[in-house]
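Sharing a chain and its predicted structure for anyone who wants a worked example. Both blocks are below, sequence first, tokens second.
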Amino acid sequence: MLSHSLLQSGLLHIGVELFCGALIGFTLGLIGGGGSILAVPLMVYAVGVPNPHVAIGTSALAVAINALIGLAQHARAGTVKWRCAGIFASCGVVGAFLGAGLGKAMDGQRLLLLFALLMIGVGALMLHGRKNLGSPGASCNRHNAPKVMTYGLGAGLLSGFFGIGGGFLIVPGLMASTSMPILNAVGTSLVAVSAFGFSTALSYTLSGYVDWQMATLFIAGGALGSILGTRAARSMAGSTGRLTSFFAGVIFLVAFYMIWQGISRL
């Protein structure tokens, strides 16, 4: 009886992790960001990971691989601007390594609270500019390259510091520095999300902060979710500001939940 109960508990736990992974993959495919925004709180509050640093390190690895799966979908749809992705990601990786070193030196619960406050600010900026459809022909050139590099370095630094893939910073960063539409920013951002995630995951792996079994289940669930999310993004992008508003809404919901959980634990 006891072994049967333990088996059921184990299967339920696996099911929860697969579902959480699918939700993360769907969000990555849909809005390019939000993978780690969801992954960290899901691992801490839904799966029950007691150490926020383990949640951050494990989520960074899972999000990086799920971002590659989503990137393949967007590449087939032709929504990735590869030159912009290369410039942004290469500068961001440098920032991600620096940020990860700083983040591990901070208290985990305080890190989650700061993360939530940053999310609210970014969500407000996205909502404010939701009517700006961008220019479909936007590209990275010698005129805007310094701006793209600056945004990339800054997004990477914050990504590594908070242990996130950084898509919710990269998408608005790409839109602000190049004026590209959000659908292109979503597809292009996945190159940098993956690069930032692997950089952060490597740093946390060296410190022993990655749960490999959990990461595998999150990746397995995320594979299906990312395919569905990419299809939904193409559908929503046709409506004025709809995808941007949804992007901001996800950020607000998760941020307020994290603040509420963080305050209740003080």
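Comments welcome. The two ends are 39 Å apart (CA to CA).
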